[in-house]
Amino acid sequence: MNIVSENSNLPPDFAILNKSAARTLNLPGSRYLVYSVDQDELLIGPVVGIMTTAIRNNHGPSGKTGRLFKELIDYSSRKGIFVYLFSPDGISRDHYYIRGITISHNSWKPGRFAWPDIIYNRIRFRKIEKQQAISRLLYELNKDPRVYIFNSRFLNKKEVHEALKNQPQVKNMIPDTEVFSRQNLQGMLQRYSEVFIKPNHGSIGRGIFKVRWISPRRYSFAGVSSSATVWKGPYTFDLLFRHLSIEVSRKNYLIQQAVDLSRYNSRLFDVRSQVQKDQHGEWILTGAAVRVAGKGRFVTHIPNGGRAEVFDDVVTRVFPSIRTRQEINKQLEDISTLVPLILEKELGINLGILTMDLGIDINGKIWILEVNSKPSSFDEDDIRTKHLQNLTDYFVYAARNKNRKG
């Protein structure tokens, strides 16, 4: 990309791609960031492709999803970065160009666009990502030296637990976790008065059950529901296992220790934190927010009756001690840098953004409950703004260093 028009009104690190070059390169004639210059070439953009299944018949996504993608495209454009959305079937057979969609004059516009420097995988459904054709495509893209792809797949709870459980820096922050089986359930209920039964591949609270000890050899359990929590039992262990086996039949489930979490206004809460790589490729904390469970609920997800609260407000209320709050913040910062680095190394995956569900127990200790490589957006404006800044900064960093694949 080396045919640009000069414009004295542009910042020194920006250039305008002239119309002829724009047509040749399958890019809009617009202003671009000059992110790399040497004797032989000038690199502009970068060009970023967002892989998604939210495009239908050349129409962009609508609702909240559409608003968030538009927000990213507009923010990137102001920084001289060209972003477009594409579905896996939009890639040309020769991998030379991609048919996708972007924002132009405040509306969605389909087009044929240049092969991207960066691909960010935002396929939101595991069953789609696991399809053979999609898996093969992602494998090929990971091998393509022209492109850097990050967050290329979903993570599952078991692999995250296996990656973290033996790491000295974080192993004491991981709840005890076992594969669901009769023997493991019996052993976990001997060690803990309450446990969770969670789908290995689940998210946003779907398919979770909680089991609790009531009296010697008597247990009850409840599932996540959009209405009030209904506890079933009491059951003997044999009857409990029989009922749970029916509920989790033919599915991959785990048993997880239920940590004695702190309460806010007598309700359980946890912390949803987002971590990202910055302009130096270093992991930083973007922000954290609290999710408070509904009355009588044991999950905090908003679709299941939870509500959002400000992190500092809740922590100050629950932990009056300044020293305890300082220790909580230090743990949060440590987790934000350690966990992503461990997962990248142990799982052999390129990551640029993660969200983590964290619990804080009654002593102020943070527990790592879940890690998600396909995070939903935050409603908090300050976190969303930092998210966009970090993400676009990382686009540029990754483009400059993509041959290192890291």
Automatic annotation (TrEMBL):
Residues 166-400 form the ATP-grasp domain. GO terms for molecular function: ATP binding; metal ion binding. This is ATP-grasp domain-containing protein. SUPFAM superfamilies: Glutathione synthetase ATP-binding domain-like. PROSITE patterns: ATP_GRASP. It holds the Pfam family ATPgrasp_YheCD.
